[in-house]
Amino acid sequence: MAPKLVPSQTKPTDPSINASEKRALLQQTNLAYDGGEEMPEAMDETPCRINYCTLCLVMVTGFVAAVEYAMLMPTVWSYLKEVNADRQFLGVTLAAFALGRLVFFVPMGTWSDKHCMRAPFVTCCVLQVIGNLMYGSAGYFGSKYMILFGRFIVGLGASNTTLTTSYISRSIPPRLQTRMFSIQTGINLFGAVIGPAINALIVHLNWKEGILFLNERTIAGYGMVPLNIILLILYLVVFLEPREKTPHDMLAAKEIRRRNRHRHWVGVLAHNGMWWGLQVIFCVGFLLSSIETIITPLTKEQYNWGTMENSILFACVAVVALLSVLTTIIVDKLCGLQVRYFCVAGLSILVGSLVFSLILNGGETIPKWSLLAYGGSFLYGLVMLGVSSSGIYSIRAAGRNKGFYLSLVQVFQCIGRFLGPIVAGGTMGHSEHYLYFSVCLGVALSSSFGLGHVWRKLDVRKLTHNSPENIIATEEDTDVLLIDEEP
């Protein structure tokens, strides 16, 4: 039934109109309540103007960060052993990177919300330059603590990932965001393939000039310095802010703030089922960082693999993750499968791989074929779960205080990435691996908690189309109700 028209001079706050008339008026004026403070982009009549030059710059920033991380992970253990560090210090060093990101995520997101995005991006580039210089020169000074604090400062700069997510969310229509985040993840994974390839090319590099000592272990620090300086210049010269809010947006946001002034952000997460997405993102960060921590010492001790072999392994891991992203994109394109079903598929593959490893790989030695089978299925399911849950969260967060809500994604991921290396480093003291795989299986199973409760809220199809009839929920469809009806 077509919505009842009400006089154009009537306001949504007029006490003389009833709930159904209010809904009709809001639909006429293209105003929908989503539990937050801003106007959802899907409801904005203004076409979304995408600046592709800036979008590519933002994507390249993530690509460079992925290259750096992929170059560092196969070599950081040998670098630490060179300065007399042990396995526990390896876990602490990897956790320091996550801690740095955790410290800066919310401040960077809030800064970009209240002012602009260029200054936070530039600040992150400066921090990356300083941190990578410290990491690269640590070998010259023979200081494991320079490696530790260098990774912490790089982690501060790596908080630009929340800015990247926020920029895409502000610039891309909600119906395209899941696909765009998948593309972004694919680009980052391509960087994760390029990093080990660079390691393979420079495995015999050994050049020294004063404090500058370039080899396969220090290049992950020194090599990123010029790249981040180039990014810094580009952000100063070519970066354009996301489109400004229209007068309609600002009036709508003012009305929404008035009706939402008593709702806390925790209530928004609970009301929209977004808490489950944060829970999954924590688990993904924990599991990914834990396997990154144990894999290099394990292959070195059991198979006597060096930088070349581990670089090839990390490249293969990135290829598997990239295949998972491509599967998500292709199936979504051809079949239009709901994103929430990708969450279930990814979680099922992930749990199955951990059960497999607990049975076959829990002993003192792990066969190569078993490790590769576990790693492939584990990464495939983990990436599918992470990408799909992040896409749902982003759509649910559309129109809210984006920088803040999307920074929560990075915060929960970094809490997981902080705890993962510490826990993994602690379990490496045991000769057998049952404890490690049991902990990982428990964390993976925790992702299923509450899935049934939020299942209907994970259906975001009605939030990803521009027509008001798909955004404004009916009285029967209360799970996607965006209008806060007053009694």
Labels describing this entry:
single chain, globular, disordered C terminus, 487 residues, 2 strands
Structural write-up:
There is one protein chain. The chain is mainly α. The protein is 70% helix and 2% strand. It has 20 helices and 2 strands. It has helices at residues 19-28, 52-72, 76-82, 87-114, 118-141, 144-157, 160-171, 174-201, 219-222, 224-237, 247-259, 265-271, 274-303, 307-335, 339-360, 368-397, 402-427, 434-446, 451-454, 468-471; strands spanning 206-209, 212-215. Strands 1-2 form a two-stranded antiparallel ribbon. Helix 5 packs antiparallel against helix 10, helix 13 runs parallel beside helix 17 and helix 16 (368-397) packs antiparallel against helix 17. It is globular and about 55 Å long. It starts with 18 loop residues before the first helix and ends in a 16-residue tail after the last helix. Residues 1-13, 25-47 and 464-487 have low confidence and may be disordered.
